[in-house]
Amino acid sequence: MFCLVNNFDDWTECIMWLTIHFVGGLLTARTLAVFITVTLSTSVAAQQGPILVAGHQICMQAWLSVSLLTDALALAGQALLASSYSLGNYKQARLVIYRVIQIGLGTGISLSMILFFGFGSFSSLFSTDSEVLDVARSGLLFVAGSQPVNALAFVIDGLYYGVSDFGYAAYSMLLVGLVSSTFLLVAAPVGLPGVWAGLFIFMALRVLAGVWRLSSKSGPWDTIWYKDGSEN
């Protein structure tokens, strides 16, 4: 009925239009889940007072900026996996998955070490207030220690998109966002350590959801793992 009302030339065009909008809706919901969780963390931090939230924002800027460096790796993995998957070269697709995860973990560990030794100097670029800087530097373990987890979360996102696993990417993010947001609200009285723990849980759950999806070998992953004689 929808296709008739909108005067599409053929059913193929209509189905393509509906698919695009459905996938767009899924990714929009996923983005909202991320946005709400991160915004809630800032809201909880803001309730701690101006000095504490200023230090938190320095941590967040470093945490997000460095984490997003792995986005380039995620995009490369997405393109390579999509190419191999669409051509039916599942052996190559499996190799891409292994390599992207390995390089992502290695990149995360390297970024963690850089931040561990350089975050003190880096934070000084944002403020000269000693109290703010003390708060920011107290978040060193959060900023540096979470980088391997962040890197894996981003590269796994790229793998989702490489095989058009948009549904799982969206629904799992909604669940992860709900759990993490609930934790942030419950941990609000703890202060900034509770906020940082909530954000770490947010990224760790994304990784766990991704590992479960890849290891469960369901959906599009079934084709990748079971073809070309990879499984006996």
TrEMBL record:
It is a multi-pass membrane protein. GO terms for cellular component: membrane. It holds the Pfam family MatE. InterPro entries: DinF-like, MATE_fam. The keyword Transferase does not apply. Signal peptide: none annotated. The chain crosses the membrane at residues 15-38, 96-119, 139-161, 168-188, 194-212. It comes from the Eukaryota. Keywords: Membrane, Transmembrane, Transmembrane helix. It is found in: Membrane. GO terms for molecular function: antiporter activity; xenobiotic transmembrane transporter activity. The keyword Transmembrane helix applies. Belongs to the multi antimicrobial extrusion (MATE) (TC 2.A.66.1) family. PANTHER family: PROTEIN DETOXIFICATION 44, CHLOROPLASTIC (PTHR42893:SF46), PROTEIN DETOXIFICATION 44, CHLOROPLASTIC-RELATED (PTHR42893). This is Uncharacterized protein.
